[in-house]
Amino acid sequence: MCGILAVLGCSDDSQAKRVRHRGPDWSGLYQHGDCFLAHQRLAIIDPASGDQPLYNEDKSIVVTVNGEIYNHEELRSRLPNHKFRTGSDCDVIAHLYEEYGENFVDMLDGMFSFVLLDTRDNSFIVARDAIGITSLYIGWSLDGSVWISSELKGLNDDCEHFESFPPGHLYSSKEGALKRWYNPTWFSETIPSGPYDPLVLRRAFEAAVIKRLMTDVPFGVLLSGGLDSSLVASITARHLAGTKAAKQWGAQLHSFCVGLEGSPDLKAGKEVADYLGTVHHEFHFTVQDGIDAIEDVIYHIETYDVTTIRASTPMFLMSRKIKSLGVKMVISGEGSDEIFGGYLYFHKAPNKEEFHRETCRKIKALHMYDCLRANKSTSAWGLEARVPFLDKDFINVAMDIDPEFKMIKKDQGRIEKWVLRKAFDDEEKPYLPKHILYRQKEQFSDGVGYSWIDGLKAHAELHVTDKMMLNAERIFPHNTPYTKEAYYYRMIFERFFPQNSARNTVPGGPSVACSTATAVAWDAEWSKNLDPSGRAILEVHQQAYDKQGAPVTSGIPEIIDNVPQMKASTVGLAIHS
């Protein structure tokens, strides 16, 4: 991931340093009149010559880009009359604009946010990838300038109003408005009736992973031992040999996992790593390590959403360790649960129509949750995360399947994400051990260790009083926090980002086990235990809370007693070969 800041119609570019952490390899700046384009580069493709901004032949078109264009070689072949200055995958954007005008964005296969300035008429366009894998914000200042930034902190102090730039959209200065460029069939939430072909689904996902092996720097995979990350690791390990990356950096895959000592993810991750033969790096953290990082996490992730902060903290700690090993890119498993209905609350979907509509709602909201977490947790340390489940072609294949096949039916042996598990259940050449392939879904914030969430709740109890909660609706009328943990995060967020526009960029509403507010109505009991943890799904999760909302395996009172005595410690590192 890189960092971009564009100020169009102003005399100031000084805020670029606020996103410098995203791109430690190079700082680029371009000025044309009162337009500034600044770029902080994390060099993944063509590190030697791909510095930004990028230009067309006569430098009349200027582009600053955050992301990766996986089909750049094919796009170059469509532009035989154009001369490219670098080997960067993003170099095609200026030339595509010359050839096709504003209508080229759907030709890009990748994750991206970019600002393109046409100096011939001082017009500009801004675009964000289909799902919102890369982060992007747009703001307007009182002096009439338009600001674009990869993060809130690049513009929040300078704009009168700002908001999240919507995924799959393009902003044109000529029209002064946003328009959607990404219009897949599933977006309308029409119920599909396509057949389920396990081999078609398997090949589509393998293709999505393989195209993300495009890199000129050391990389690895995030491996929690859950289904999604394990499939990513398995496919990567199978296809790494013979790639350009393998020739440069070796054919043995590196894998990374984080968790509290003895956590479910650490155990499962090591087992999968041993099965695949990866060089496995296991990072340990304590509850206190995580608590000590909360303020930094909220500053970098730019949210007060409870489940996002819970999951971002271990990922934030792990990313720092990964970067210290010289790795600059990782492949991760985000997006599968949204596409296939993998969250445990999908067990209660009343019918296939509601099941499908909920998956559509979840995919549309990914940019506010898991994409935001994966992008900013890693970018905080100059690390890039790639997510093959959110490949455009793969989503089209997966979302065209009749949702009847995705429905969870225990009497037929169909657990969550059954269609994906079945697609990779190969007896002749197994991708994974059977019990891993059919391991129950663990949300990342649960899988790193159940005491992590319990410890966060206990810590919030020490800092938020009952009296404070009585006034929560008056202090925070928008997205009012109804738990002490949520109130604690909100106080920290407001200190960093006090503007009304900032708090409006964060989603709200009731949720159980990461559901949308609409799906909460699927079970009357859920409204009594609105917790985003998967353990809130009683009678489904194997380590569920009891009906009073307490975890069945550990109690919060004991944790509260221990919190004052916890000592801050260095995150442990164990490397397994």
The top-level CATH class of the largest domain is Alpha Beta
- In spatial order, strands of the major sheet run 2-3-1-9-8-10
**Gross CATH architecture of the largest domain:** 3-Layer(aba) Sandwich
The residue fraction in helices comes out at 25-40%
Query: Total number of helical segments?
Result: 21
Mean pLDDT: 89
Strand content: 15-25%
> In angstroms, what separates the terminal alpha carbons?
28 Å
The gross shape turns out to be globular
Find the CATH topology of the largest domain. Rossmann fold
> Radius of gyration over alpha carbons?
23 Å
Q: How would you characterize the largest beta sheet? A: 6 strands, antiparallel
CATH-wise, what's the superfamily of the largest domain?
HUPs
Point out poorly predicted stretches.
551-577
Please provide the count of β strands. Answer: 18
Structural class: alpha+beta
Keywords: Amino-acid biosynthesis, Asparagine biosynthesis, ATP-binding, Glutamine amidotransferase, Ligase, Nucleotide-binding
InterPro entries: Asn_synth_AEB, Asn_synthase, Asn_Synthetase, AsnB_N, GATase_2_dom, Ntn_hydrolases_N, Rossmann-like_a/b/a_fold
Domain Glutamine amidotransferase type-2: 2-176
Protein name: Asparagine synthetase [glutamine-hydrolyzing]
